[in-house]
Specification:
By secondary structure, the chain is of the alpha+beta class. The protein has seven domains: 1-41; 45-111, Nucleic acid-binding proteins (OB fold (Dihydrolipoamide Acetyltransferase, E2P), Beta Barrel), CATH 2.40.50.140; 127-196, Beta Barrel (OB fold (Dihydrolipoamide Acetyltransferase, E2P)); 211-284, Beta Barrel (OB fold (Dihydrolipoamide Acetyltransferase, E2P)); 295-371, Beta Barrel (OB fold (Dihydrolipoamide Acetyltransferase, E2P)), CATH 2.40.50.140; 379-458, OB fold (Dihydrolipoamide Acetyltransferase, E2P) (Beta Barrel), CATH 2.40.50.140; 462-576, Nucleic acid-binding proteins (OB fold (Dihydrolipoamide Acetyltransferase, E2P), Beta Barrel), CATH 2.40.50.140. The protein has helices at 10-21, 25-40, 108-126, 193-210, 292-295, 379-382, 466-469, 541-544, 550-559, 567-576, and strands spanning 48-56, 60-64, 71-74, 89-96, 104-107, 129-138, 141-146, 149-154, 173-182, 187-191, 216-224, 228-232, 237-241, 262-270, 277-280, 301-309, 313-319, 322-327, 349-358, 363-367, 388-397, 400-406, 409-414, 436-445, 450-454, 475-483, 487-491, 497-501, 522-531, 536-540. The chain has a five-stranded mixed β-barrel. The radius of gyration is 55 Å and the shape is elongated. The model is unreliable at 1-20, 31-41 and 569-577 (pLDDT under 50).
Amino acid sequence: MATKMLYGTEEDLKDFGEEVDAKTPGQVKQDVLALYDMSLTGYQEGSIVKGTVVRISDTDVFVDIRFKSEGIINKMEFKDDTELVVGKVIDVYLEQVENADGQIILSKQRADFMRVWERIREAFEKEEIVTGTITRRIKGGVVVDLFGIEAFLPGSQIDLRQVPDLDALINQKMDFKVIKVNKIRRNIVVSRRVVLEQERSKMRDEIIDTLEKGQIREGVVKNITDFGAFIDLGGVDGLLHITDMSWGRVNHPSEVVSLGDRVKVVVLDFNEKKERISLGMKQLTKHPWEDVAAKYPEGTKVKGKVVSITDYGVFVELDQGVEGLIHISEMSWTQHIKHPSQLLNQGDEVEAVVLKLDAENEKISLGLKQATPDPWQNIEDEIPVGSKVTGEIRNLAAFGAFIEIKEGVDGLIHVSDMSWTKKINHPSEVLKKGDRVECIVMAIDKEKRRISLSMKHLEEDPWDTLAEKFPVGTEVHAKITRLLERGVIAELPGGIEGFIPTSKLTTESIRSPAEAFKAGDEVPAAVIEVEAASRKLTLSVVDYFKNKEDAEWKAYLAAHKPQPATLGDVMPKLEGE
């Protein structure tokens, strides 16, 4: 064995060398073994000894404890970098004198643990509060540096409630209580929750003793529900109801507060035992309706946001806690609104006019249409009766067509005012949506917002001179336009329509005109009656042929010989009916 591994003074080594020179090789061997045994004296496994740092590698620290060889400690066991200095004397724990490789096994962590164990045990038995620093996260909780050794802080013992971000606690110094120790396993468990509960209990007693209605206190948002938020006042909880959060409309408490927020609240009420405490937040500010009368006088134009839509109107928030109603009847000058959602959506910014203010009952009536000029205000001057106007057909109804005369103003052309000469059953027979038409203003009802229009009055009424133009006996050629059960409607030159009874169409025996005639047929006829007042013109084919050759009459009858009625013949008849 090399002499550098033996321990003793320089004089001892010198004397030993001189003795070796005088002895045999066998005697030298025995003396060396004896000296080796002497070197083990005083080093007992499980004890704490002092050592000197002699060398440091990337992963290990080599420590000389004045033994036969150097001990090795994993570098991770050194939390204090100031100890990682060559020549530094430190306490180490002797785990094993010699392992299979002949190395001494030392531990820095176990030495640290043994050094502070008594202090920790005493704190545990006396339930004392100790201070430590959270160093890192591990599964199930965090590690706390307690007097230089590691203790475990479970996640459930970190706070009174769940901590969302454990990383935010790293490097924070806190007070703890030791709740479990095991020396053999070097297991130490601490709790911060126990400390907080004791503090909370003390604070609760203080708060309960001094709690009064009207007090303003600070608290932390502990929990949020659909109906409100629970506020921790420091050992005692109070309920901040959703209706007491803001003078304005609140759909959910999370719109006003968040978990962990520090908020100011006022104590509204509590029961005898002060177990149920009602809190308010809006009461910390002035009631918004106090100066509403001065801020929103009638006739004022205001701006606000749509916060609610009902079947009868929308509520508009003018200020926090101040809402006004726009009734459905006050939304448009011109449109017939069936539901407010046709014009507005929740969240829309609108401009309206204050129509009525009832500050005592906290009601404001608003008008949306009043924010824009009424298009009917001067309608009689802009579009007087008898004037000619042009507009676009916006809609067709069974009784007529609606024409947009100007923006926001519609007029109606009734089916009876579309033609002097034709009987129109539906506006779609002569008009379609989107057409631009010219018409005459016949009447204006400003109060009911109605305008009557006419297309036929663009021309003179042909019935006024019809008797002169088509006196009785006048022979004409007419085109059958509609088949009826008792005759046909035929159109004369100029657009006038006349009626030919079935008995005046032919002398053949037919039950209905459809058996021998069809729409589009042209027939000769004679005027047999003119009634301008009732707008009735009667024609006769039979009378037309009275003074004609028999051959012509026979040719006519042959051309209109009775045939079984077809679906195509019946349809025009049904439409006419």
